[in-house]
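Notes from the pairing session

We agreed to fold both candidates in a single pass and log them together. This is the raw record for the first candidate, unedited. Please don't reformat it; downstream parsing expects exactly this layout.

Candidate A
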Amino acid sequence: MKDFLKIMLASALGFLIAQLLIFFIALGFFLGTAGSLMSVKSTEKFTLQENSVLHLKLNGPIVERTVELSPFTTMIGPDYPTNMGLNDIVSAIRKAKSNTQIKGIYLDSRMFSASMATLAEIRGELESFKESGKFIVSYADTYTQGGYYLASAADKIAINPQGMLDLHGLASIPIFFKDALDKLGIEMQIFKVGTYKSAVEPFTQNEMSEANREQINSYLNDAWSFLRSDIAKARSLTIDEVDALANSLTLMQPTDFLLTENLVDTMLFETEMKDYIRSLLNINKDNKIPSATVENMKSVRTKTVQKTSNTIALLYAEGEIVSGTGSTGIQDKYFVDQIEKLRKDDDIKAVVFRINSGGGSAYASEQIWKAIGGLKAEKPVVASMGDLAASGGYYIACNSDKIVAQPTTITGSIGIFGMIPNMEGTSDKVGISTDAVKTNKFGDFGNISRPLNVDEKQVVQAHVERGYDLFLTRCSEGRGISKDTLALYAEGRVWTGNQAKEIGLVDELGGIEKAIEIAAEMANLGKSYVIFEYPKLRSPLEELLNPSREELATETLKDILGDSYELFILLKDIKEQDYIQARVPYGLNIQ
């Protein structure tokens, strides 16, 4: 028996040692591989050459900013589409404007996606770049409407002889789920305040309400007026001519038509386009074009920037507003902590609060609103609205000293709603039943296997109405507008940034740079200040040593679900009993 135990223990110990050896060998291999990848990348230092062009290749989704993927994420993650950071694009264009080694921009428009305000931000930078006297030329096999809007700022627009150009105007195509939910036996019990609060419509109707149709028609036409005007001015066309072209289905027209109608300047194959760029640079046709990509421009330094006692913090808030402590999206506890750090930092003299959010949890929005109030009591806070700063996104912006938005920003939507599912029909379909014993009247409130009773509905509706009144109060106090006046523009109605300025919901029209200028002026900084972005993005090494499972899961879900990701988050919030929401429809689906 003793020999048997010895053999057993020896075998177990040997197995354990073998497993540990395998683990450390694998770990060493992994770290060595990752280290090699990182060292190779670090040794491939880009050097900007004389007589270069900025190769502005737009491909993939354009978001506010991106983090460099770690080797860990690259090796185990899914095949992500390559996101481009708006901040990186803007920075690259500005560096190219001031750098004497760069002679112009080659705008290489691929199948990228960007919302209207993002396009306006980039186009504004291209217009500013032209003030340097340097050239901008554009080429594409196929111009998306967004790509053509940017290309219209170029000195010359070229298209492949067999290429295509899309100019169609704007449309919003919401998706409705009511019949699908009916088939599943799911009833969404709705509680809302606001005639225009349309976020619940996909769950209760099969088409838009008249009020929703009215507001969508209003903000689409207003946004299109800016895009149309910019294109008309750049291409020496009239407004009516641009509309006529948008009504001609340009995507299906031959390239000769595009040339005749002055939408493009020339038809070239890509090789011919590159020869044309060589001629602009006065280099031989056989020579490689010296160029720098947006990624390359990150390593091109203008001057050493260090945090000083005159610092403006650029605080990014992008995504769904939810309760939580994580760094993904806009989680209230995490952002309150970030805001508190900025408040306590004496070197930071002003904060630009960059918001790109359609809202989310009303409770979480209130927590961030409160933190912004504490921050602005000690230093100026200027909100800069991106593509979307509506409902909860407007809630967290309204307490700022000033609000800046692009004319095509989607904002407003001051209203809230509650949505509680009743799955009694589903239970009946599959033969499941429930019962309850309770000591008090509302003991089983939240039981989704039955519909809410009259008393429960009254309590929930009263709760939603109190939340709406609080939302109105916060906006009224923040904007200095009486509640009665504000109520005329609330009711959940969505506005463009241009419309919002006209009714007092926004102070100025412009992008991030405009917001920074206002913040610097309010803090009496003159031109002597530096800008640092917050929250700080983690380096590839930090991602490697401490990969965020939450961020990896989020990116995976976004990759799989696509445009349905926001719907998933909404249903997740409801499941977790965050019933009261301040958000725009989960998918505006503007095309």
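Candidate B (folded immediately after A)
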Amino acid sequence: MNTQTIKTYLVGGAVRDHLLGLPVKDRDWVVVGADAQTMLAQGYQPVGKDFPVFLHPDSHEEYALARTERKTAKGYVGFSFHADKDVTLEQDLMRRDLTINAMAQDSDGTIIDPFGGQQDLADGILRHVSPAFAEDPVRILRIARFAARYGFQIADETMLLMRQMVENGEADALVAERVWQELAKGLMEKNPRKMIEVLRECGALKVLLPELDSLFGVPQRADYHPEIDSGIHTLMVVQRAAEMNLSLAERYAALLHDLGKAKTPADILPKHYEHDINGVEPVREVNQRLRAPKHCAELAELVCRWHIMFHQVGQFKSKTILKVLKKTDAFRRPERFQTALNVCVADKQGRLNLEDTPYPQREHWLALLEAANQVDAGKIATECRAQGKAHLIAEEIDRARLAQITPLQSVSGRQVRRLLMTSSRYKINHTPEGITVSARVVHDSQEIGSTAVFLIFSFALTCIAPFYLEEHYFTNLEAILIPLLFTFYLVGSLVYCLLWQLFGPENIKIRNHTLSHGYTLFSIGRWRSFPLSEISE
């Protein structure tokens, strides 16, 4: 295609990402001044039959003829296209959704930008190119996804147009496959919370995910949820899942985990009794409507149903623990069980000012599963059959698993739970010798001695400083007050440290070591592991 009348331009996302300094993944090209016969004669291979798109014979990149579009019916499939030699580059760019996507680059590297896309990139604005934006409802989902990717704001006139599209019923014409496709992409972006916020602002969330939209405005207990609003909590959980780099299935489960709160009777708010159980049916409805992939749908239902029991592991007896492990299919599908716990971490940390809260329950559940898996179920089954007790196989396996779980959950487990619920300083480890607790060992004498040394050194400085400060900067009164106040602070810190070491309610003894979860000026010590048998009050 070296004729003077035919020109090829790089267009769309490749130009946009290049200008943003981002890696260019896919390159799309538009051809001006050619028709289908010209492309075929050049060896290009046609793709499909709905669009005039061709594959390059060598690079296999997509080359599309410049075209115009005309709306013929509701929905995203009701279009007719005109692709011919007389269609100009600007006409082709005008049919695109956003100004940041309506730019082209010629062979010399010159940017063709008839609609101000470069300025909108610089300003962080998502703006529609023309009123034709309203002809394709998928663009509502796409612009929400772009907001999640780039963190850009929606132009006021574009948001107004999106609301009008929803009010006119355009969002109702979206089919499940396209909704899921865009939702999945948006969830995997850097800021998925932004996608949900945009959909809610334009009214599309109420049409596409009414179960999720219903959470906004539903209050929660402030002592558990300082953010109060159930919808805001869900956004925070989804965002935390993204920050943890969780998979699509995990992020989708995070999105739906609290749907049951929308069904809580108004007279018991802000409490939400059995919202985990009440949420299962709404989750199933969403899964069915979106035709979510099986692994995503199953994990979403699992997390919704069991996340409260995962949170409350320290309150259960061993029989309940075993029941949960069996009901969640943890023995056959341990990887899925672990992903469910990952979502629970996001749930715990997706709360206002609690983003760094430890979630030791995850390690404890994995330790319980590991302990139960020490049982050789095959051996038990063989022995039962040999003794003519095949009907007791399940019962004997449960008994053996309980024998492994009970020491961790009830006897020594009582101290372990205190460790787990106290601080992220404590970890559960799995070793060939069994389960151990790792902790940072801090001797009282080291802690107090180090603090005293620091206090003496600081006090010496405060005694020397007034002579210099008085001469150069301060009056006599200021020179006295500053070191006095600093000394009072240090003395108070030392006293606080001493009191916590002596009376701290969350201190736990491992032999003659103190594992302190309190305020200290120093944290002297090193990580050591201890078997459960060494833990005492």
